[in-house]
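hey so i finaly got around to running the thing on Inner membrane protein YbaL, KefB/KefC family from uncultured Phycisphaerae bacterium. pasting the sequence first so u can double check i didnt mess up the copy paste, my clipboard has been acting weird all day
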Amino acid sequence: MDHDLPLITTIAAAFTAAWVLGIVTQRLRLSPIVGYLLAGIAIGPHTPGFVGDLKLAQQLAELGVILLMFGVGLHFHPGDLLAVRKVAVPGAIGQSLVATLLGVAVAVAFGMSARSGIVLGMAMAVASTVVLIRVLTDNRMLDTPHGHVAVGWLIVEDILTVVVLVLIPALGTAPAVEGHAPAPQGVTGVLLSLGIALLKLGAMVAILLLAGSRVIPWVMVRVARLRSRELFTLTVLVMAIAVAAGSYKVFGASMALGAFLAGMVVGQSPVSQQAAADALPLRDAFAVLFFTSVGMLFDPAFPFREPGLMLAGLGIVMVGKPLAALAIVAVIGYPARTALVVALALAQIGEFSFILSDLGRAYQLIGPDAHNLLVACAIVSITVNPLLFRLVGPAERGLQRWPALWRFLNRRAAARGGQVNEQAGRVLERSAEPLAVIVGYGPVGQAVDSILRTSGLETVVVDLNMDTVRALTKDGRPAIYGDAFNIEVMHQALPRATHLVITLPHSTNRNPLIAAAKLVNPDMKIFVRARYLAERAELEQVGADVVAYEEAEASVALARLVLFDRGADPDTVRRETTRIRQQLGAEVGSR
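ok and heres what it spat out for the 3d tokens, dont ask me to read them lol
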């Protein structure tokens, strides 16, 4: 029997091509997103061989968009943004404005409309969450102050993307296509449509966040009590897809926006963690189809047909955006290293760019060339970004060879911390007691500081969070604002310090800091927090005296708790914990 199954064959081809090319890109230490986009190109109409059903792929990709935005809303935590709001909010808005203006300039220069340029610029303004988190994690910067600023910046970009989802239909000049609300005509129509859209948006947000925040969590908890994994997963899907579809049908909003708000509401429920765990595999599977469908629309001949447009687009993504971010972060008063990390981390585009592109194409705001440009820029920038990010250290050292430029980039940071650092210097001058310098004032740093001070050892804290430094200074405590990995920041404290305690778990500049600190004060003992036993050799080589390994201490702590629970005497517990510490140390030393 002869079967015509375009849906099955398209899904099979998309998943298979994405699987193969995803493995290849992963082995090359690139983001799998590059592989998924290449898979779409391979099964698209612009390359020889099998051609998937583009319409079916795009419909499946719509589910990918819904689940992607649902996941963003589910993991949206205002607290992550509030911690770095003073740099992330103005920074993301300023950089997005620069990218949008550059997009308009490029569009007009290459014969497109200003409206096309607005959509193009906004799509180029937003970086990929997946790529940014991956790059920061690979370079051990996710848990650093630099990483926190970059992630907070990305959260603001995500929020701006949600706002843009409302604005794009108001910019549209073409009749609606299937699945999208009608576009307005003329200036009056645009303004009227925008006003109506904002009113509808307000009503939708009010209903979802006020009424929905009571109903949806209540439903989720009741279903969870049935103890049926299948029903709970189905409930998560209903919340994501039904709310997204209802947002479009009832309020005329994009389904992506509805999915984001649904995720925010579900995230408030007591079972949000389980909802995230159940939604993740489905989101990842449909996200693959989303990226593949984006690749299917790409014409590989575009870079050769429009090299000027291609270079201009890459210039916005990989030069204009990073330079804007670098300048904004430095002007706000963060150290040059933070500015470099944020600038390079954001020098790429990804999933949200394609979501905006799809909506722009639906309202005929952008044509095939603009879409081809976004896909090409994404492939190049995502591929190059991990390699580019490895230049943070060399770029920093290169800038330091130009003292005037380095001081200029750090001028605002120095001025920002000048007053509190001077006060710290005066406090240190009045005392001749032994001193411990604590780098980082997170939960670990706070615990170390409390124990040392209770035991009578004077401490000085070095941190990049100005609010933390000011609070300590207000209490009469010596605290230094700045990047501890710039040894000049700690010149007041290191010469008389007896101990240096580095509580930050990861940093590419941790080893140079240890070596430089030893040169300033050879008699000072350096205690370092590290995550993995495998880091022992390099830390000891640069001069660390004592290293506390998280994976070792966690195993020891768990074993101690079990032994005490079993009624073991303190001597036995002490003997066994000492033995396992020695064993772990010997195993690492023999590697």
